[in-house]
Amino acid sequence: xxxxxxxxxxxxxxxxxxxxxxxxxxxxxxxxxxxxxxxxxxxxxxxxxxxxxxxxxxxxxxxxxxxxxxxxxxxxxxxxxxxxxxxxxxxxxxxxxxxxxxxxxxxxxxxxxxxxxxxxxxxxxxxxxxxxxxxxxxxxxxxxxxxxxxxxxxxxxxxxxxxxxxxxxxxxxxxxxxxxxxxxxxxxxxxxxxxxxxxxxxxxxxxxxxxxxxxxxxxxxxxxxxxxxxxxxxxxxxxxxxxxxxxxxxxxxxxxxxxxxxxxxxxxxxxxxxxxxxxxxxxxxxx
Length: 287
Description:
Blueprint: E1 2-5, H1 12-19, E2 31-32, E3 35-36, H2 41-45, E4 48-51, H3 63-73, H4 78-91, H5 107-119, E5 125-129, H6 137-152, E6 156-160, H7 164-170, E7 173-178, E8 181-186, H8 188-195, E9 199-205, H9 212-218, E10 222-229, E11 236-242, H10 247-259, E12 264-269, H11 274-281
Helix pairs in contact: 3-4, 3-5, 4-5, 8-11
């Protein structure tokens, strides 16, 4: 599963539409299982299931009717159609909603319906444009469960989202684009190692006549975000960057500040997350 992220206007939706053979590229090409989307669009369309960020309007249409309509549109043989419909409705947990009108469903339930119709032809590649947008927390969790199930089934999923923590949870790789160009594409852990200046530690001590942040800076360490104290004066905190990545350096620092008389109540590493990475590698520019 690959997550695609970038600022607004970076070209995420355009990239996905090109992959789905819905837009011609101005230059370059995309190949899917060896097929070029520019030279063989009909072949590549059969390999892709594309779920856009907006749904069509289907008034007075029931869930079962919509799924059956698209099963026919995808030219699934009649002998296989019933089982294909049952499979996607079971996977997306829609069996109890068969007779429900689509326009009465919540955003999360409509998302499931259109994901089900996208899965009907059993495409090896799923392209999902902002599938979690405007979903409530429960609907996002349920969508995440469906995507994880598809991932275990061996489907390749290309997904864009502005909910970065969720992408880092279940994507194998992350691709970041800006101004229509690929900035980086790799595993999250590899990107973190590439962009972070060092290990970030939070050190919290009981208050004393010395400030832990001032002591660390005097010793030549880099502190970030300034010093912090709580309003009740019950702790004194500093955020320090250790440019050496060896954890033994951190252990030695902890030993040093304890020996200096600081009463340490917390010493923990603050891991760099996908939001931190995004802010590091992008400038916020649009194409």
